Each structure stands twice: as structure tokens, then as C-alpha cells.
Amino acid sequence: MSWVLACVGFMFLVLCKANGNTYYYDFVLTESNFTRLCETKTILTANGTLPGPTITVRKGDTAFVNVHNQGSYGLTIHWHGVKQPRNPWYDGPENVTQCPIQAGSNFTYEIIFSTEEGTLWWHAHSDWSRATVYGAIIILPALNTTYPFATPDGEETLVLGSWYKGGVNEIIQNALSTGGDPNVSDAFTINGEPGHLYKCSNATTYRWVVDYGKTYLLRLVNAVLNEEQFFGIANHNLTVVAQDAAYIKPITTSYLMITPGQTMDILVVANQSPSHYDIASTPFVDGDVAYNNSTTTAILQYNGSTTPSTIPRAILPDFDDGTAASNFTTQVRALASKDHPISVPLNITHTLFISVSVNERICPNSSCDGPDGNALAASLNNISFVTPSTDILQAYSRAIYGVYSANFPHRPYIFNFTGHVRNDTIYPYFGTKVRMIKYGEEVEIIYQGTNMIAAENHPMHLHGFSFYLVGTGSGNFDPNQAPKTYNLVDPPEVNTIGVPKNGWATVRFKADNPGVWFMHCHLERHASWGMATVLIVTNGNTTETSMRPAPAYMPPCT
């Protein structure tokens, strides 16, 4: 496969070495004018494109990305799903592992690829900047290896996104100051374009051109801010072969459900009558919350075909069809083959039971715009995460007192999580609490959804690890019965999972990556309200089991 990159306007260089190649990129963050939905606005982008540049490597390679911030405010970049072994310094969440790259300065990230193979993505990890600063990461098989399926004839990457007419950071800051829900997006996008169903968007609808009879590997990324998505292609089956850069047993389906943060690799055979076909993505929302109920589209266009009078439409489930969502997600199983083995922890030494909730923050004189005149908040184990002004990794590595406390509880205050919720459970504690985990421990996390304020599916993401999703269920987790349903044979190895509405999900992983790792809901409004915490995996007894030394330069905290 050619190593030619399609993104123009940024430096790309490769150096070869015995244990993988090293690549160099430059991302220049600038304010650029974009016209969507009949209006022109200025947005922050990487190298002037939306989505930004694609990083392409092979399994086991390393990439250095020099981020030049020519915007008007500080921000950071996160390499979503990249484990970064022993290397939390370059993981990216703002004031968790680093402070922002200030406007007018630059910072070079070292991205170490290890076991990942497939599709991941990168995005800004400050406020809501990821609405426009994001792009795909393609991790090809290592040299002298191949896919666990026939090599496709071609590839395509589609990134689902959100478009706001207003300034995204102003929208969330206004919501946080008033205590109400942030405005919903004005459109969804596919590769930066809303598609023909929106105003002033027909001519710019994204087109994927294919040849009849060929098989394509579609790399799909959900970079939408606040809605999970159904996705499909009219008259074409999708064969999903990987999720979050790990292979799964093939699933052939007419639609899929993908949460914000997730990625999927999909085989698509161009076997229909040569014509134009609708590619569509619509929201999946199973909670009583505000959301964007619109559809973004692109066109699957057969080479040499003419535009039909009517383009076949993709048929997708209704926006609130939880059964359809579950019917897809429960099919996902790890490939678990000789060439792509898995290693599910069986001797659990560290258990966390975490309640996942939307809450309220009391406002004086009921002066806020949320429920009961209060402000909306969110929590894990009834603790709403407060982002510190000094990054936690620096505080941990330098033993700086007062930045965080190491007492995030292993279980919440117990109540009927999915039943009637009493008022004494609605108001969380606000603080920067982390959980300490010893190197080498085998960890089980049980995420328990709750019926507080607005129950819905929560896409939970853990930095620094992929974990095995060993079980899900509805209602309150039953410690006597639920473990009997666990799949310990071929659970999917992923980095983002959906915790079912008023249900639970159990994941397992081995704490073999020392460092400071953020864990949060990937619905941006929930993360902004505090649905997050930090796991600190302590150093082992050797250099190889300890964090790498701090880089000579990190962006200063101001």
C-alpha cells in the first residue's frame, strides 16, 4: 500500500528503524472561514481542513506531531484509543496530563502505537474545541502481516461530526454559567459536510466513488459531540470487522449504532446496480433530553453512473429505538484468533462499582436555568469532577500537594439506582478525586446507570487502555446473578462502551500501563458537567514497568 498521504499543507516525514518506523507531522491550528447552512463563520481547524489531517502508520510505529497553535486560545490534543505505553505525558486531556498549548506557541506530541490495529482518531481535549479540531488515525497491519480477511480493493474514511452555527465554546460556557442545557447542534456532518437534506448543502454533499464489483474497507469515526448515531448505506449490507482498532467476529447488518468516541472498520461490497445511493446517519437518543433530530447524508456513487431521478434512501431505526441499538451492540464479539488473541483478566484484584448520574447543583434563590431552578451537573459515584488549574500528572510526578485527593471511592452511596430516586442522591460532591491502582492489578469496573434527572445511554471512555466488555444488563446490577452472564471467552476489546439506559456494563483490564489516565463520558455536555474521574496506575518495580521520565518541556500552567 502506498504511503502517500492525501492531506495537503502539512509536513510529513518518515524514518525507518528496526522496531517500527517513525513519522513526523505538523498540525497548524488556525482560524478559518467555513460556510455551512447558508452562513459563514470562523472556526479553529488543523491545517485549514475539516476534518483535519489523517495520521497513517503501521502497527508498532511511532509518530511525532508538532502542534502549532496559531489560534486565539490554549488547547490540547488527545490521541483517542492510543494506549501510549508508559507515556501519559503525551496523552493530552487538558489539566489532567498537561496544561494547554497556549496561543502563539507549539508542542510536539510523541504517539507510541503498540497493539492497536485498525481505525482510531485524534481530537482537541479542551472545552468543546473537538467540534472542529479532529481527524482520523489509520493503523495498518505491521509489515509482513495482513488483515484477517481478504485485502480490500480500496478504502474510505468517513468521520461523523457536529456543526453549530454559534461558537461552540461560547455555547458551553454560557450553559455552565446559567446552569441550563447547552444548545443542540444545528447539523450533523459526514467528512465536514451536512448533506443534501440541509439548507444550502446539496452541492457540497460528500461523495464516495466506488467501482462495481469491488470490496472496500470503510473506516467510520463518530466525532459527534452529544448524540450516539445510527448509520447505514441504502441497499448495501455492512460487514463490521473491527471496533476501536481491534478485530471482531464479522457482523453483517443493514445498520449499526456507534457512540461518540467509537470507531468501526466495515467491509462494503459495491454489488448493486451502478447508481447513486444514500449514506445516512441519524441520532440515537433514548433519554428525555434535548437533541438534534436531523439526518446527515453523503452519496455512494458508482463510477460512470448518472444521477437517478430518486436516490434510494438508507432505512435506519427510529431515533429512540433502544431495541435496535441493543440488537447491534450485543452482537459484538472479539475475533479471538491465533493471530489476534485476547487475554481477559480472570483473577480480579481491584473492583470498582461506579454509578453514572446526571445531577443538580444548588443555586442560590433558585436562580439557575436547570431543573428546580438549580444547575445541571453530572457525576461518577456522586462526585462531580472539578478540573484543577495544575495538571494532575505534574502534581503526581512531582508530589505537589493540594491539586487532587486520592480518595475516589470504590463504590457509591447505595440506593435504588434505576428506580425512584430520592432527593438526597441528586446533589453530588464537587472535587478532584482520583483512584489509585497498583501496577499489575486485574481490574473490574461495573458502571451502573441511574434514573437521576435524565436517564440515558452513557458512552464511557478510558484513556491509556483498551478494556474487555464482559457483560451488560438492564436494571440494577445483581452481584449474585450478573457475573453468571459474563462473556469471558470472546468479549470485545474496546476503549469506549455504552452503559445502557438504566442498566449496567462491566469491563475488565490489566493495569499494566503506569500513569495518569482520564475516564469520562464521551457526551461532551456530561463531561463538562463533571461525569469524569482519573485512574492513577502506580509504577511497577522496574524501569520497564514505570512511567517514562518527564519530557524536557511541557506547556506551562498559567
How does this structure look, described?
Its cofactor is Cu cation. There is one protein chain. The protein has 558 residues and is mainly β. The protein contains 4 helices and 33 strands. The strands form 7 sheets. It has a 6-stranded mixed β-sheet, with no helix packed on it.
Brief account:
The protein is mainly beta and 558 residues long. Helix content is 6%, strand content 38%.
Low-confidence stretches: 1-12
- How does the helix and strand content classify structurally? mainly beta
Biggest sheet details? 6 strands, mixed
Strand content: 35-45%
Tally of separate helices: 4
N-to-C terminal Cα separation, in Å? 45 Å
How would the blueprint of this fold be written?
Elements: E1 12-15, E2 22-36, E3 39-46, E4 55-58, E5 62-69, E6 77-80, E7 106-112, E8 118-124, E9 134-140, E10 154-163, H1 168-178, E11 187-190, E12 207-210, E13 215-222, E14 228-233, E15 238-243, E16 246-253, E17 256-258, E18 263-269, E19 276-284, E20 296-302, H2 322-329, E21 350-361, E22 375-380, E23 383-385, H3 392-398, E24 429-431, E25 434-437, E26 442-449, E27 458-462, E28 467-474, E29 493-494, E30 496-499, E31 503-510, E32 515-521, H4 524-529, E33 532-537
Parallel strand pairs: 2-5, 4-9, 10-13, 12-20, 21-26, 23-24, 25-33
Antiparallel strand pairs: 1-2, 2-3, 5-7, 6-8, 8-9, 10-11, 13-18, 14-17, 14-19, 15-16, 15-18, 19-20, 21-22, 26-31, 27-30, 27-32, 28-29, 28-31, 32-33
Summary tags:
metal-binding, lignin degradation, copper ion binding, single chain, disordered N terminus, six-stranded mixed β-sheet, globular, mainly beta, 6% helix, 558 residues
